[in-house]
Amino acid sequence: MTGDTRIPFTGSIHGGLQEGKIISISGRILPGIDRFHVNLQCGSRTNADIALQINPRYDSHPGYVVTNTFQNGKWGSEERKSNSPFPAGSTFSLSITATQQSFQLTVNGSHFMEYRHRIPFHQVDTISVVGKVEISNITFQNPMPAFSAQPVFAAQPVFAPQKSMISGGLKPGRTITIQGTVHPQATRSDPNTNEAKL
Description:
Elements: E1 2-5, E2 9-12, E3 22-29, E4 36-41, E5 50-57, E6 64-71, E7 74-75, E8 79-81, E9 91-98, E10 102-107, E11 110-116, E12 126-131, E13 133-141, E14 188-190, E15 195-197
Antiparallel strand pairs: 1-13, 2-12, 3-9, 3-13, 4-5, 4-12, 5-6, 6-7, 6-8, 9-10, 10-11, 14-15
């Protein structure tokens, strides 16, 4: 999602939340703000469980950030971080990464905090933003798929040069392993042509 977004905003997290998924939010905090929040929710209904609320507040100087969970109609115990990285009137970039144990929060490219799960993260499917902020971009980055190291082809020992098609093509995360034995009379090997010179 790009372009200025009306606040309050509520939208689906495409593909749901899974380990390694990154949610990135960028925007601008308006002057005169008292607080805003970003929620990762289990559904969009009123009183939905909130796995993570990130709540920068500006009722003291410097500002601070409160994180919490809303479950079964009740708020849990607050976690507070002083020296908020969200000054009023500034732009910001917030990234939330779901890991097995926690949410990892990065603000403006620097690690900010870790928030341990109180609700299983795979139940989260909605994001909402409320407060005096302008949101320019919300993106979802899925984790890179894990490719197992499988042989592209199996062949009897051959002398270089040897050429073969890469089944399925080359993809991010795919590994090509070349195994062989250098001919005892070889003086050098050319990695570009995979040819041993005799």
